[in-house]
Amino acid sequence: CSSDLASSATRRDPEAAATRRVNDAVAVVKTMESDPTMRKVLESAKGVFIVPAYGRAALGVGAQGGAGVLLVRKSDDLWSDPVFFNIGGINVGAQAGAEVGPIAFALNNEKAVQRFREKNNFSLSADAGLTVMNWAKLAEGSTGAGDVTAWAGTRGIFGNVATIGINDIHFNQRVNNAYYHQSQNISAMDVINGKVKNPGADDLKQTLADITTGKASGTSSGGKTESKSEGTSAPSSGKH
Q1: What's residue 11's pLDDT?
Q2: What is the pLDDT of residue 137?
Q3: Cβ(93)–Cβ(160) below 8 Å
Q4: DSSP letter string over the chain?
Q5: Residue 167 and residue 16: Cα distance in Å, rounded?
Q6: Which of 96, 160, 202, 205 is deepest in the core (most CB within 10 A)?
């Protein structure tokens, strides 16, 4: 299943669509950072998959949601360039009528990252051997740590469920080739390993690096949240 939201623009100009997606992802990360729970999750995340705009979800059925970017954290706390994937449905139990909005998935361990490295069409779910936890339930302290933490920028997308399933994630070959100006097909690993680069992604990479190295607003140099900023978002340092 391909994304109904992004497919038209992507067909017309895949590079422009990819660039817009990367730029929109910066704002999503900054919004995530302002939430104390997600800021702590991001500080230790091994990767993050950001979908700047996800479509309406119907009762019991995952909507054809959108297109996202994967970035993987490196050993030096820097981040890879983005890899472009499309996303199909999100299983949120009986939750209905979710509005369009940004969603993101923090990949909390190498097991979760490996799904993106090895697969061209896959799911993040219990059926795939991964636990995907709702960040809103983590904030309540009612669940333990999962392989993936799912975040939503619009209240109601994930409802009150503790675990979530994400289906039909697939590598978008055309968009990846276009964004990195490649005439030959590249793989997700080519991007993650730094074989191709696009300086247009530098702002997104720096925004994530500021969080994971403790330079972002609301974090100390040790990467831990400062008590004085708990629950609030301090002004950006502007060093993104």
Answers
A1: 62
A2: 86
A3: no
A4: ---TTTHHHHHH-HHHHHHHHHHHHHHHHHHHHTSHHHHHHHHH-SEEEEEEEE-PBBTTB----EEEEEEEB-TTS-BPPPEEEEE--EE-TT---BPPEEEEEEE-SHHHHHHHHH-SEEEESGGGT--EEEHHHHHTT-S---SEEEEESSTTSSTT-SB-EEEEEEE-HHHHHHHTT-SS---HHHHHTTSS--GGGHHHHHHHHHHHTT-STTB-TTSPBPGGGTTS-PPP-S--
A5: 26
A6: 205
Residue whose C-alpha is closest to residue 54's, from 158, 133, 147: 158
Distance between first and last Cα of the chain = 35
Low-confidence ranges of the chain (pLDDT < 70): 1-11, 56-65, 93-100, 142-144, 216-240
Which pLDDT does position 10 carry in this prediction? Answer: 57
* Residue 237 CB contacts under 8 Å (≥ 6 apart), including other chains: 210, 215, 216, 217
Strand partners, 27: none
How far is the C-alpha of 159 from the C-alpha of 178, rounded, in Å?
Answer: 36
* In contact, 116 and 175? CB cutoff 8 Å: no
- pLDDT in the model for residue 144: 67
CA distances for 216 relative to 30, 149, 188, angstroms: 9, 20, 28
Q: What is the CA radius of gyration of the chain?
A: 17
